[in-house]
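Incident log, structure service

09:12 report received: a user says their structure output differs between two submissions of the same chain.
09:20 pulled the input from the user's history:
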Amino acid sequence: MEQSKPDYDVVIVGAGAAGIGMALTLQKIPGLNFIVLDSGRIGESFHRWPAQTRFITPSFHSNPFGLADLNSITAASSPAVFANAEHLSGAQYAAYLASLVSQHKVPVQTHCKVHHVSADKAQGFLLETANGQIHSRFLIWATGEFQFPDLTPFPGANYCPHYAQVSDWSDFRTGHYTVIGGYESGIDASVNLIKSGCDVRLLVRQTSWDSHNSDDPSICVSPYTRERLQQALLSERLDVCFDVDVTQVAANEDGQFRITARDGRHWQTTQAPILATGFINGGGARQIAELWAWSDEGDLLVSEADESTRTPGLFLVGPQLRQEERIYCFIYKFRQRFAALGTSLAQCLQLDARALQGDNMPWGPFGNNECCGDCEC
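09:34 re-ran on a clean worker, output below:
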């Protein structure tokens, strides 16, 4: 990498909730030069949600009382107020993000795909993008996971549409469908198919709505989803099969599909099964996999400062972030990391970060650099 002055102090890749939220935090640091890049639109992943999909975390305007809307990315804004809705659609939330970008004049380049990233410890990062080369001292990766579905969980998965590939559940003609996967997307697919007049067989490996082990919605399904599941069960159009580890889907000569489980059970279905088997471990961070360290289980490893343990100056924000046993896969969780990361970058660049002091107050204590001694957080 040639010796040159970087174009930016910080480049953020990804203009979703994590990327725009982080950008709004960095904007409070005087003199910091940054930009946000996205291969699509602002909130691209939210634009791609199925039309019927809604936020499982409720939005409520509690900001004046010191508790920010669970889905807000700034302490002063509220998706509930913006959309006049409690459980926003993807399109509504994308519009909320775009409104904040416009209001705060956040520098964003849309339709600017990053094709390659090279790193040099002394020089920073060189990004090869659709709009040319960009040189940055620091890099924040905020590409999320929705655009990176796991399309190959077992042989024959190529016959099956994935939840993330569905635009509108009303496009599915009335009939009997099999959904593979019992977490949020599997239940959501089942609920919406039933609303469209379909019958559904739901194949689940384990009961994700049983909260006897945890009430954390990162581990078991949310109350919003449990409530809708109960309504679907009462309709008598939902058949749930438990302890099913699907190992193969095969297309028969008669045009039907045969689903086989590890324990020998099998099912025949006329319609292609629907995959609700989740997303690639690491999500969008897999685009630059060589710049991260990975655990034996395939989890992305970062330092206590959310920095790559392999590539100094590369940071992660968003739903793929893990810190020990804490999972930051919801907006109300990963937004807690914005101020700490912004402060660290300001210190590295010898800039004034005083405007970020107290930025975590509306979010609560989790994720702060200084916590409360021996408490569980």
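09:41 both user submissions now match this output. Likely a transient worker issue. Closing.
09:42 reviewer note: The first strand starts at residue 8 and ends at 13. Residues 203 and 241 are 5 Å apart (CA to CA).
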